Amino acid sequence: MILGPADEGNAAVRLEPGFASAWARLAIVRGLQTQYGTAQPLADDSLLALGRAAADRALALDSADADAWLALGLWNAIKPDPGAAWLALTRAEQRRRPPNPAAGTRDERPLTVQPTHALLL
To answer: Which CATH fold topology does 4-99+108-120 show?
Structure first.
């Protein structure tokens, strides 16, 4: 069960409501609670709604925050919407890449994904 991180996330967003990463991490915790449980009396639909609201708030505060995109990707993966999950997770990865000083921006090249099952062949 996941309880402590949710309490800490709620406390963090109460103390600093403009901190996008706190909202993003709270959204991630809510998504994980749908998979691993919580001691709080919340149904999965409620946890998903709280998680989506927190992810949306994080993105509204800072659309370049990688954790916010990761939270949205997790939400879409649980929902499930694989296409939207892939897009959000790709954006999260792009925002985690170091800046490209030559271009003056972050490296926005498309990601290449190797299927993990290919390693088993």
So the answer is: 1.25.40
